[in-house]
Amino acid sequence: MIIAIDGPAGAGKSTIARRVAELLDIQLVDTGALYRAVAHRAMHEDVEADEAESIADIAEELSFEFRRESSDGDIENILYCDGDRLGDEIRTQAISEMTSLISSYLEVREALLEAQRELGRARPSVLEGRDIGTVIFPNAEVKIFLTASAEERARRRYNELAERGEEVGYRDILEEIRERDERDRNREVAPLQRADDAVEVDSTDMNVRETVTAVLDVVYEQTGGEWM
Ligand code: DC
User: 224: CA distance to ligand 1 center in Å?
Assistant: First the structure.
């Protein structure tokens, strides 16, 4: 049982995928974290971002496991890579930038393809990413393409940064999101696109609870309620 959730950055994929996995009590595979783990290891081994082959070798050799851990009453989905716990160190700006680059290398994507399939086959899972419904699990039982307008995604990002006390202008964030969308949709390797049979859920005018409900409705419709 695979639920594929794809979509652009900032549409709320991580939050929604986490809630859906918790509610259905199934595994959550955050595929972005795998790419981040590869970038993190490469950085620590002083491999330059443009050494695609060496980075693909790293991706090929790493082993991944997701574990659910509770902290302060919250449930977190933590990636263990070769047995090492990876927390906030894979969420820094430097890692985000390196990840964005290395995830565009075909060799790296191929090296992580089997790891993602193995994780998904092992247990009923929600997989969250960019190409789950198109490339990794084209036969997934449920495919969701989660979107939101660029303006709404910029607004969410702005609020998130403001909460952390970071002052960044809304216009600059919006501009950055538009540029990234353009890059993601038009890149040669694994461009972001909706699978023909994916159901689009637009979260622009919905809060988290409403979006989770909309996603669960799709799961119910596509699986006949077998998993709920
Ligand atoms: O979802 P995220 O921000 O953790 O993703 C990190 C980077 O990895 C981002 O640049 C998009 C890329 N990515 C990808 O190319 N394919 C995936 N399945 C998941 C993430």
Answer: 31
